């Protein structure tokens, strides 16, 4: 158990990493693309990321369980329907896709390291503790779900 386990809201992690990516981009090599070209590439990726996040939230609301990532032990249902048939963590997947869109806007390939940092952080400090809580709550049902559905994609 770490002091960071389920302590930092994932949206705050996204914002901090996006800020660091933006700051880093000013000193990193860039691909020379016009602003409109960057947007043409980034907007569909951003739309996909937002859609994946929203699908995750809607699935939680349909199951009438908490979406609070800092209190996974308060989950009242194991959500396996909707987008959760394809990813155990669609909201975090959506955030990673949104960060990828931001990297496209920044036009600096090295800023993609921010997406990797996000995934590594979420795996260790958010998802692992969440999955421990879900296993304690839902036992074999969660173990079976975890065996059938991938963590990210």
TrEMBL record:
<keyword id="KW-1133">Transmembrane helix</keyword>
<keyword id="KW-0472">Membrane</keyword>
<dbReference type="InterPro" id="IPR007318">
    <property type="entry name" value="Phopholipid_MeTrfase"/>
</dbReference>
<feature type="transmembrane region" description="Helical">
    <location>
        <begin position="92"/>
        <end position="121"/>
    </location>
</feature>
<dbReference type="Pfam" id="PF04191">
    <property type="entry name" value="PEMT"/>
</dbReference>
<protein>
    <submittedName>
        <fullName>Isoprenylcysteine carboxylmethyltransferase family protein</fullName>
    </submittedName>
</protein>
<feature type="transmembrane region" description="Helical">
    <location>
        <begin position="37"/>
        <end position="60"/>
    </location>
</feature>
<keyword id="KW-0812">Transmembrane</keyword>
<dbReference type="GO" id="GO:0016740">
    <property type="term" value="F:transferase activity"/>
</dbReference>
<dbReference type="GO" id="GO:0012505">
    <property type="term" value="C:endomembrane system"/>
</dbReference>
